[in-house]
């Protein structure tokens, strides 16, 4: 039981940290919506350079990688454990409901993990570990053109939009459930966490999905 509670805490803390990460990542990526004539390339590449060199951001990046690994590991363990219990003895209504949500959260989490692997190999790996990336006219790594080029391809746009659908459903449950696991939300405040969670899980993935669609239709030109 103690291990179960520790795991629930770790799942919640890492999940809520990833929610913060997504908010910051979105704020930075919204610069991709700046029209090219207004200096989008220069601004985005300067921002990308700052994000990969600033020591505070570096620490936050490491915390992000740790949170992804921890969240995947701990939630996978909890999901498998819930399934094992369901298949053996625990046949109460409560454990059935729990295992149902943990089952669909597990599937959504797996889809999101697959998306993160594709996403990191598309951008992060190329920018950090290869020489494939060109320089912009100001001598900075041209991350902006790499992203714009990627979303000229409809298949990539579709992958991103579908993944944002999975993030919507995953955070719709995960947001309020995380605060509940930490004991922050009580029976009185639960409905407010649910409302904030609903707004978060709608707005963040919608804005993320807007970026590839906007670039695909060349609205930045
Ligand atoms: C339109 C949507 C998105 C765009 C255009 C985008 C763009 C990028 C780019 C360009 C990088 C590499 C930055 C660099 O290393 O210089 C990056 C890194 C990353 N992205 Fe995204 N991203 C998007 C959505 C997402 C989503 C939805 C997630 C998570 C589910 C995500 C997770 C990450 C992570 C974990 C990194 C590594 C961050 C770090 O090293 O600190 N991204 N993204």
Outline of this structure?
The protein is mostly helical. 79% of the residues lie in helices and 0% in strands. Helix 3 runs antiparallel to helix 4 (93-129) and helix 6 (154-181) runs antiparallel to helix 7.
Question: Which labels suit this protein?
Answer:
mainly alpha, binds protoporphyrin IX containing FE, 3 helical TM bundles of succinate and fumarate reductases, 79% helix, 0% strand, 221 residues
Number of helices: 7
- Give the assembly state of these chains: single chain
What's the total number of strands?
0
- Low-confidence region ranges: none
Mean pLDDT: 92
What does this molecule look like?
By secondary structure, the protein is mostly helical. The protein has one domain: 3 helical TM bundles of succinate and fumarate reductases. Helices cover 79% and strands 0% of the residues. It is built from seven helices and no strands. It has helices at residues 2-29, 40-53, 55-87, 93-129, 143-150, 154-181, 190-216. The N and C termini lie far apart (57 Å). The chain binds protoporphyrin IX containing FE. Protoporphyrin IX containing FE (HEM) is lined by residues 22, 25, 29, 48, 52, 61, 64, 112, 116, 119-120, 123-124, 127-128, 143, 147, 160, 167, 208, 211-212.
Compile the SSE list and pairings.
Blueprint lengths: L1 H28 L10 H14 L1 H33 L5 H37 L13 H8 L3 H28 L8 H27 L5
